[in-house]
Structure formats: structure tokens, C-alpha cells
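Write out this protein's structure.
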Amino acid sequence: MKEFLKSSIYKIIIVFLVIAADLITKEFLYANNCPIIPGLVGVRSVSGLNTGGAFSMLSGNLWLLILTTCVFIVLVCVYDLWAKDKNVLYGIALSLIVGGAIGNFIDRIFLGGVRDFLYFNFWQTFPTFNVADCFLFVGTVLMIIYAIFVYRPKDSKKEKVAETVEKTAEEPKNKNLHSTEKTKPVKEEKSGSKEEVQEKKEKTSTKNKKLEKTQKDDKVKTSKNNSVKSKK
């Protein structure tokens, strides 16, 4: 759990920043009329709250939207615990989606609907939206990019098969290395034993030669003594 909290600190910070930005903009910009980016995005007062979801879908089903938001947030948190994905793109996308969902969830709980106030100047028929919707959209786009270009399942069958093939290919190599390492000292021992045998042979031969010399000397001495005695 501690490792999960350490790896999720930046996610929690992003979620809180998204919620704060959404609530602050709703508090100060809702029911006003002013351009934000002239010609592109502006703020306009809207009569009433959005009781539906995105683009006013499911309008009037407030508690259904509240329930689905709760289930969605719980499932996302459980998946994040289970997946343990430390990819930064995944973490940012997930945080933006969760923060945007919670921002609109707070409006539905306390106000009975969502405050929408942003619109496109060049697209007058496009439904009004808010900052939470922007974060939801950006987070969804980033999550799609992550799923297509970045995500690689670790426990896929193909990777398991590749790992087993690599292991089986490496096993005979390792065995050959171990066998060569084992045979080297054996050869050295054998060569060492041959040298020892030769040294022993040389020692025994020198001892035998010395014995033969001493025996010859003794014979010579005895023969001399016998000749002296016969003369007397």
C-alpha cells in the first residue's frame, strides 16, 4: 500500500488540481458573458442547469448519473490498484478523467445539475460545456493514445511463449558452459597427477641407483679384504 501511495502522489495532486480548477471557474464565470479567447472560446450565461450527462444526454436521470459516476470512480481506482502501471502518460490521463468526473459529480450532488458556461464562438450550435468536461475530453484522448501506442500487456501469451523459447535456447548454452568449467579443473588435476607420478619415478630411480652403487662398493671392499687375507 505504501508503494502504491508513493507512485500515486502525482495522480492525487492532479485530481485535486482539476477539481479545484473546475469549481473555481464555475464559481466565478458561471452566469457571465465574456470572451476568453476572442473568436474561439467564450463564456455565456445559460438558463438552468444541465441535468444530463455530456451533450445533455440522459437529462432528467440525475440519480442514474450519480450512481454511474460512483461506480465508474470505484472501478477506475480498483483497476489502478490491480494494474500497478507506473507509466506517466497513463497516470496523467487517469487523473484528468477522475478529476473531471468528480468535478461534475459535486455539482450534481449539491446543486442537482451541472453548471455549463463555455461555448465555441465559431460553432454556435455546439452544446455548452465546462472545465471538467475539457479535462474529461483531454484525459480520454490521452488514454486512447496510451492504449494504442504505449500499452504493452506484460502477461500476454505471446510474451510467455517467447520467454519460454528464450529460456530453452539458453539452457543448453549454460549447460555447455558449466561442463567446460567443470572439465578444466579435472584436466588440470590429471596433468598434475602425471607430473607427480613422474617425479616419484625419478626419485625411486635415483634411490635405486644409489643402492646399486653402495652394493658395488661393498662388494669391492669385501673382495679386497679377502685377497689380503689369502696373501697372509
